[in-house]
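worker-03 picked up job from queue 'complexes'. Input manifest follows; two sequence lines, order preserved.
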Amino acid sequence: MIVAFRENVEGVLLACKELIDHPDIVLISAKDRDEVKAKMEFSGPDDITLLGFRGAADTTGIVRVLFGRQAQKIFRRDPDIEGYISLVLRHRSSRPVELVRFLCSCRDNAELLYSGKGAIAKKYYDIMRDVSRSYHRLCMFARPFPVNGVLSVKVDSPHRIGDLFCRWLARKNPDLPVSVIEGDIAWIGNGGHVGLEHFAKIPSSSAGSLEFSSKIDEVDDMWDIYYDSQVIHKRRNKKHAKQLQPKESASMSRMSERDRYKVERGIVSCTLDNFIPEKEV
Amino acid sequence: MTLMERMRVLSEGTKYDSCNQSAVCHAFGPDGRCIQLYKTLMTNACSGECTYCPNRCGRDALRATLSPEEIVRITWSFYRRNTIEGLFLSSGVIGDAERTAEQQLEVARLLRSQGFTGYIHIRVMPGTPKYLLEQIADCANKFGVNAETTSSVNYSEICPNFDYQSDVLQRLQWTRDLIKIKRREAGFGGRVIGANDTQFVVGALQESDREIIGTVDSFMDRYELRRPYFMSFDPVPSTPLENNDPSPLWREVRLYQTSYLLKDYGLRASDLDPVLDDNGFLFDADPKMLLASCSPEMFPVDINSAGRDALLRVPGIGPVGADRIIRSRPVSSEKELSRMGVVLARARPFIEINGKKQTNLFSFAGVGA
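worker-03 finished. Artifact:
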């Protein structure tokens, strides 16, 4: 029997349940029904069981069935099992079928997901942390601009976390519509303010009116003044500052790029004004 | 002065409070993320006469003030651009503590009324009335008063305008009680209420590290202090302490390390006696490493059978690492330990895995066990 499951948390958990009940099934994954069709062109549609493509499943219930009591997480701030699956699926090199098999191998022992013991457990834990770190970096270093009343930002993450970040930005600014453009997709949060659904996905070409400003405005200047005012040269802990403002942050926005430059090179205390006699300044 | 100039002056006034010496002040959000804060004074025109402070009244310095509306505007500008996720608001004393707290409360109220959902930390002045603390607790995520030092006698020497017992300790107790009440309130509008915190100025007086550690320990018991901050004293020209020596920065670092031993490792102040010199001062060395070196009979610790307390005594193993080890047993190699976040370079001399341990000079020479 062939089981096609949707590449989301529900689909993965339903596939796990199915695989445990019928260990001989062949699993395939797809983003939507069209992809299932494309993958199954060689076979009759009657042979396939579809999981996770319609309705909402009780994911919490399935997690309880699969893993018993929720495992005590190995690290306090790791996500729960559903969050873990969601993050892994967003990774650029995520392989959902392999993930399903791994989750089944951790049946009744969810701690294995977080322990990193064994090559495959380590691989998935690292994948989860990798996506989680990228998301946290976006939250920390993406700098949206208000454009035509919409708080807009273009993100360029290797993982599919645009929607996650958009939801976070929308929660942070509940009184404004927000737009996160990720490749050819634009995620709109708080869409009710502009006549859309609360959370919507539209082609980025439709969000063309959201021109991105690259010029430096008053807030940029104000931030520079504030940032510079906080530095105590003799107390600078460059190593720590680099951890808080990692190299990757520089590509996320111009402001972060400037902040990262200051972490690397320090803040110049000497400007051209220093070379002009005082009366001319 | 323009708004930008005043903002710069008042932000500079807070930079010495920075605990991480990186750049912009940080806090940690409830989800564990590190968040940046806009940290500012409302005014540096202070009516207090604290002997170490650059903002003390009568000192010849550039004075500036930001109105509540201006602070709100700057905070929103940074917040919208996602450069910050919260505000840390302190101030010089504007006439008296009550008036200052009213102004601080005004900032928090304005922000909340405009839909600000970010983090607000208010550093209230000693002597802030209880009714204002209660109102601040309704708007802020965190608030607290600086203790600055360890005793009434010391306090009267550096902060002559306030009384340690009533203006500081009483406020720490009220803060603790208010935090408890707020945490009991269901949901509290989705906001997180931070634990009690305070700050000490290190090195302005002759107080020893033993006194500071003892005070922190007793504050943790009495006021449920979670996080003490330490600020190294740096003499400021035109202040009464201008001729005193600056406190070495390493002392601040070592005090932070000992505070973590109290907070996260369950040690008491008396447990730290071995890491203090005869005068009660810390050495410039990792206190946990010193503690371990002072008790060689407790090591090596068997990774696969030791209890949590024994694991926590090992340098390089923290509370998270100890929990990971216990849940992941049996541990068969150093590589596994490293994956769990154990700092092997520190831990190696103090641990044993499946009977294997690092040779030390004594066993190499055939001395001892």
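worker-03 released lock.
Residues 142-207 of chain A form one domain.
The beta strands of chain A are 2-6, 26-30, 48-51, 145-147, 150-155, 178-182, 185-189, 199-203.
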